[in-house]
Amino acid sequence: MTSRSNSLRLVVLALGAALTLSGCGSSTDGDPKAEGSGDNSASQEVAADVPTGYNACTDVPQSVIDSEKWRGGSIPDDSYASGGIKWRGCQWVKGNGYSISIRTTNITVDMVREKNFPNAQELTLGTRKAITTRQIENVQSNCVVNVEMNGGSLELALDNPPASRETGSLDACDLVNDVAEKVTPSIPAAA
């Protein structure tokens, strides 16, 4: 595994840990609850598993892979965190550019919103709610988009080191939002 892949894996795990450590509160009968004051209720249950109906490792359209010039194929990128938080998907690398992890997770858009990350931006991709966040303080080279799915979200986490020749001067959130706009139409309506 390359140092870039290891770097992305650490960033994604750190993001998950940040959400988990700050996002899981009390439990009732062993079921973890997310803290916060979201639109629907004072707390949300974490789904037992990631959303079904979309496999990022196989369902990201080849047209997106080609247009983004991701090379070397996908690298499996599943992980788990305390509180029952899960991610399943893959990561890709753009030659001389960024790396991106695209995974389904049982973290919902509302759960991300409740964390009140600085500079969070709400958006709509097709008919789905989404939120763009910088989840690591003072790190401008990383950005995450969570796109609404039943029982969680599709999470796109992008790492764009400033030293990357092709994309290093570009904003990580602009890049990840562009990829999310291309990928979201491939999510089945029922997912």
**Class per helix and strand makeup:** alpha+beta
Helix content: 25-40%
Sheet having the most strands? 8 strands, antiparallel
Tell me how many strands there are: 11
What gyration radius follows from the Cα positions, in whole Å? Answer: 16 Å
Weakly predicted, low-confidence segments: 1-42
Average pLDDT for all residues: 83
Distance between the termini: 32 Å
Outline: globular
Query: Can you count the helices?
Result: 5
Please indicate the percent range of residues in DSSP E strands (runs of 2 or more). Answer: 25-35%
Compressed to H and E, one letter per element, the order equals HEEEHHEEEEHEEEEH
Write a structural description.
The protein has 191 residues and is of the alpha+beta class. The protein is 26% helix and 34% strand. The chain is built from 5 helices and 11 strands, in the order αβββααββββαββββα. The chain has helices at 3-23, 56-59, 62-68, 109-114, 172-183, and strands spanning 24-28, 31-34, 44-45, 70-76, 79-81, 85-94, 99-105, 121-125, 128-133, 142-149, 152-159. Strands 4, 5, 6, 7, 8, 9, 10 and 11 form an 8-stranded antiparallel β-sheet that branches. A 3-stranded antiparallel β-sheet has the order 1-2-3. A hairpin with a 2-residue loop joins β8 and β9. The radius of gyration is 16 Å and the shape is globular. It starts with a helix and ends in an 8-residue tail after the last helix.
